[in-house]
Amino acid sequence: MKKNIAVLCGGYSGESVISEQSGQVVYKNLKGGKYNPILVKVSNEGWFAFVDENKFKIDFNDFSFIDEKGKTNSFDGVFIAIHGTPGENGIVQGFLRLLNIPFNSGSVINSSLTFHKKFCNDLLKQYGIPSAQSIYLKIEESYDPVAIINQLGLPCFVKPNKGGSSIGVSKVKKTSELIPAIERAFKEDDEILVEQHINGKEVTCGVVNYKGEIKALSVTEIVFESEFFDYQAKYHDKTTQEITPARISHELTQKIMTLTKKVYKTIECRGMIRVDFIIMDDEPYLIEVNTVPGLSEASIVPKMAAYAGLSLRELFENEVDMMLNAK
Question: Same domain for 120 and 138?
């Protein structure tokens, strides 16, 4: 009998729409294979399993649901496809650990760390992985805009410390733009970063634990016409290009792939991740680590997998294989 795998998507953040798209792609590619996927959507209304267009409420006591025949359905594992809270920050991982249900993404600690950009980047700097200079602000603290500009220069970036898909991110080119940008970011998170601008080529690299081997899929170059790779450029701007492989030297490609695998091992990731960089003077600077990368048809990791010769069914079934066989 096939094992039931919950494909968990949605969530409580502005990334929920993208997450549902990711969940649908995972569900579609697992369906008809060696496992029985069941889509589970998370929202402020509740957690619901969807089976044959029927909707069933999840019981939080044991992460099960009762179907229309009165049968209790449980899950053998969970494929987490939630971007943002509660799937990328350790909350779901802690819940599933309490219930002893396997899941595919990183641990509670790994997820919490990578979701907190400041802590993650500061830690990785200690292991020789450079990132932009930044100033960390909390919503209840005062700050001096002039001092920030004097330290970081212009342009600079303002972004929520915990979040993704570039929601709430601004590029500040004039001193007068800084306070509105900070206020905008604080609407998304109570902690924000003001970061030095690193002028260079943006790339990203996907890594997966494939059959027990930490494998870098490829390096993809991001080309966009907007000021930066914002939400519009990521999901709606048809002029945005995601070029695989990136138009960089073989040596630099290998350096980025090696660096991404180092990130994976250093902070003890599991499953598949994507790490974003900006290249300046042939030096890759870390932007952020994504432990639940986008998996929609428009997302980068599925395209990387295709370049590496992996079908999405192979990629996703491997995720389930690895989590069910984890020690």
Answer: no
- 196, 214, 238 — which closes off a domain? 196
pLDDT digits (tens, 9 = 90+) for 161-189: 986 556 789 999 999 999 999 999 999 88
278 pLDDT more than 50:
yes
Structural domain range at position 144: 134-196
Mean pLDDT of 120-143: 94
Please count the structural domains in the chain: 3
Cα separation, 13 vs 241, in Å, equals 26
The C-alpha atoms of residue 149 and residue 232 are separated, in whole angstroms, by: 27
C-alpha angle with apex 108: 103 to 109, nearest 5 degrees?
140
Query: What gap in Å lies between CA 77 and CA 92, rounded to an integer?
Result: 13
Q: Phi and psi at residue 197, in whole multiples of 5°?
A: -85, 125
| pLDDT tens-digit map of 212-239 | 999 999 999 999 765 654 445 444 456 7
Domain co-membership, 147 together with 100: no
**Counting Cβ atoms within 10 Å, is residue 247 exposed (0-12), middle (13-18) or buried (19+)?**
exposed
Token readout for 117 is 């950009």
Residues 187, 97 share a domain: no
Q: Are 97 and 144 in a shared domain?
A: no
Helices (H) and strands (E) in the chain, counts: 10, 16
Q: What is the CATH number of the domain that holds 161?
A: 3.30.1490.20
pLDDT tens track for 293-303: 999 877 899 99
What is the enclosing helix (H) or strand (E) of 315? helix 312-325
- Measure CA 239 to chain center: 23
